[in-house]
Design a protein that fits this description.
alpha/beta; about 120 residues; 5 strands; about 50% helix; about 15% strand; five-stranded parallel sheet
């Protein structure tokens, strides 16, 4: 599990909630950090903020999907951008789920649990 968010509070909130559910969690501070760490971590699921400095979530998700080594990893976009166009863009990239901030931690856990099960099957 790789949690990517430039906001330390949100990153830690997500990481702690998922850790308490038994997930082995690593974190990254932005899209570039994610791409540099993903092959070392090889997570089943990545939670990915959209609005981040250096490399945003859109471009990060596109690069994850375009790389044969990471294209299979399940991606959950978590963002304050709740417009239909944003959701369509995420689904067009091929993300597996799209949650808007503020998110319900229980919903996030269920989405990640379901995607992790899919990744392992």
């Amino acid at each position: 599990m790789l949690v990517v968010d430039d906001d330390e509070v949100i990153r830690q909130l997500i990481a702690v909630n998922l850790s308490l559910e038994g997930f082995d969690v690593s974190t990254a501070t932005d899209g570039q950090d994610c791409l540099e760490r993903v092959l070392d971590v090889m997570p089943d699921v990545i939670t990915l903020d959209v609005m981040m400095p250096y490399l945003d979530g859109w471009v990060t998700a596109e690069r994850l999907r375009a790389d044969e080594a990471t294209s299979h990893i399940k991606v959950v976009l978590i963002t304050a951008r709740a417009q239909d166009d944003d959701k369509r863009r995420g689904m067009g990239i091929g993300v597996d789920a799209y949650l808007t901030k503020p998110f319900d931690p229980a919903e996030l856990i269920q989405v990640v649990r379901d995607l992790a099960a899919l990744a392992r099957s």
